[in-house]
Every structure is written in structure tokens, then in C-alpha cells.
Amino acid sequence: MAPTDTELLSHAIAEARAGRATGGIPIGAALIVDGEVLATGHNKRVQLDSPILHGETDCLAAAGRLPASVYARATMVTTLSPCDMCTGAILLYGIPRVIIGENTTFYGGEDYLRQRGVEVTVLDDPECIELMREFIAAEPALWNEDIGEDA
């Protein structure tokens, strides 16, 4: 039996928790292909002093180079609505489905994904919401930096 969206989200949540435990931003992602976890990743902007390693881009990097036929069968699972950069990466590689843990604390490019034919599912997961709310309250300047805003 295929895993549920909530079961798939658990892999991204584990990554978000790992990222926060190492002083980073609690956003995680998983790339699922044919029901199997191909790669996971989390936001490593703080840990690696990188302007581009968000959860989704770190996950794609962990997956390595893949043929278009693999991306065409993939689902990107992310704990938070993807920013414009991560939205672009999803579109660039033709990933047809995205599962989002929550979009309450940040509403990213999901409307654009839908406009471009991507199936988007938002789970409104309480754990994802709480992870981000706690983080934003504790480190508002770091959060603003992550989303490209001044404090």
C-alpha cells in the first residue's frame, strides 16, 4: 500500500527538526519517487553560510543528478510553502506534485505552481505550524533574513 501524504510528510518533519537541532531554520523536505524516499534535506543556510540551501534545494542536491523521467514521477514534500526560489526549482525539474505541511506562517509560490499545472496539497499540519511559530518567535531576524526581508 502506498504511504499517505501524512506519512510522507513525516520524513520532511524529521529533517526540519534536525535542522533546528543544529542551529538552523526548521524547514525540511523529501523527494518521493514511486512511493519511496529518494532524498531528504533541510534548510542549511545558517550551518553552511549558504544563501540558497533551503529545505527543497538541499533535498534536490542530496538526490543528485537525475533524468527528467525520474522527476516526472516525483513528489516534493516540504514542511513549509515553498519560496520563489524553491518554487522555481520544482518547476525547472518538472516535479508534478508538491505536498506542503503548512502555509500559515509563510505563503509562498503555491498559487504559481498550481497555475503551471503542479498538483499542490496543503496538509495544515499542526506540528509544522508549531515548529515555525516557535522558531519565528525565537529568532525573528534570522527568519526575516531567510525570506529576504529586513527586520
TrEMBL record:
Q: What is its main location?
A: cytoplasm
List residues of the CMP/dCMP-type deaminase domain.
Answer: 3-120
Q: Which cofactor does it need?
A: Zn(2+)
Q: Where in the cell is it found?
A: Cytoplasm
Q: Show the PROSITE patterns listed in the entry.
A: CYT_DCMP_DEAMINASES_2
Recorded GO cellular component terms are:
cytoplasm
Which keywords does the record carry? Cytoplasm, Hydrolase, Metal-binding, Zinc
Query: Which Gene3D superfamilies does the protein's record reference?
Result: Cytidine Deaminase, domain 2
EC number(s) from the headed UniProt entry: 3.5.4.1
In terms of SUPFAM superfamilies, this protein maps to: Cytidine deaminase-like (SSF53927)
The pathway this protein participates in, as annotated, is:
Pyrimidine metabolism
Q: GO BP, one example?
A: nucleobase-containing small molecule metabolic process
Q: How does it assemble?
A: Homodimer.
Under the heading PANTHER family, the entry gives:
CYTOSINE DEAMINASE, CYTOSINE DEAMINASE FAMILY MEMBER
What is the protein's name according to its record? Cytosine deaminase
